[in-house]
Amino acid sequence: MKLIYFDEDETLDVVEENRLKLIQPKRGYRFTEDSILLASFVEEKEGDEIVDIGSGSGIIAVQIALRRKAKRVVCIEIQEKLVRCAERNIVINSVEDIVEVIRGDARKVENYLPPESFDIAVSNPPYIRRGAGRISSVMERAIGRYEDFLSLPDLLHSARYLLRNNGLLYIVYPMRRFKELFALSSHFRLIPVFIKHIYRKPSEEHNIILFKAKKKF
Predict the structure, then answer these.
(1) 152-194 pLDDT tens trace
(2) DSSP-assigned letters across all residues of 95-160
(3) Domain coordinates of the chain in residue numbers?
(4) pLDDT attached to residue 118
(5) 6 against 75, higher pLDDT
């Protein structure tokens, strides 16, 4: 039996019908349904190598690893607290043989990883535009939500650098910014191949898309 500590300012949550256990901060960045949907949307093959850009507490990486198809899943996360959560989540879900965590800036992936080293890149990125409203005083939450810390062009640049030719990018993103995502991904030669709309409320504000693109030279 694995004994893993968690701090007073953290919670231990169980999701996916007790299949996945997750340590995460009580305040700050916490996972949402978007991450669950995105992980389910990813279609990896046996032996694929996968990178999770801006991985938070590691929920997407762990979900994918539990399917036991991927050879390797690498998380890139800048926040030390979330890195510590991810490292423990890997252990309590028994996927240490597949998942590893790199503490680093997702805008500077060339400092940590070689180019064209992954078959799949996945990300649930920040989506609130620079300068749009007051940034949260809780820094972990601000980094996870505001593009000041990882813009869409930054993300697409990193994904293109990391993906092999014909590699796949999977993103969850607000539906209201679909045209921007489509145009920018095409600019980075990440060609859209499949889009799934998730309608939650009559207001477009809460609707999302699951977006799949393929890298082309």
Answers:
(1) 999 999 999 999 999 999 999 999 999 999 999 999 999 999 9
(2) -TTTEEEEES-GGGGGGTS-TT-EEEEEE----BPTTSSPPPSSHHHHHHHBTTSS-HHHHHHHHH
(3) 10-215
(4) 99
(5) 75
What is the per-residue burial (b if ≥16 Cβ within 10 Å, else e) of 116-127?
ebbbbbbbbbbb
Residue carrying the six token digits 């070689």: 114
**CA 35/CA 52 separation, integer angstroms:** 11
Amino acid at 84: R
19-28, 93-102, 185-194, 199-208: range with lowest mean pLDDT: 199-208
Q: Identify whether the C-beta of residue 126 lies closer than 8 Å to the C-beta of residue 149.
A: yes
| CATH superfamily placement of domain 10-215 | Vaccinia Virus protein VP39 (3.40.50.150)
Q: With CA atoms as reference, report the closest residue to 112 among 188, 51, 168.
A: 51
Cα angle, residue 167 at apex, residues 184 and 186 outer, rounded to 5°: 15
Of 28, 32, 53, 6, the residue nearest 143 (C-alpha)? 28
Q: How many CA atoms within 13 Å lie on the side-chain side of 66? A: 21
* Radius of gyration of the chain from its Cα atoms, rounded to whole angstroms: 16
Buried (b) or exposed (e) across 128-155, using 16+ Cβ within 10 A?
beeeeeebbeeebbbbbbbbebbbbebb
In this predicted model, what pLDDT tens digit does every residue of 49-108 receive, in sequence order? 999 999 999 999 999 999 999 999 999 999 999 999 999 999 999 999 999 999 999 999
Calculate ∠ Cα 31-37-99, nearest 5°: 65
- Cα 58 to chain center, whole Å? 8
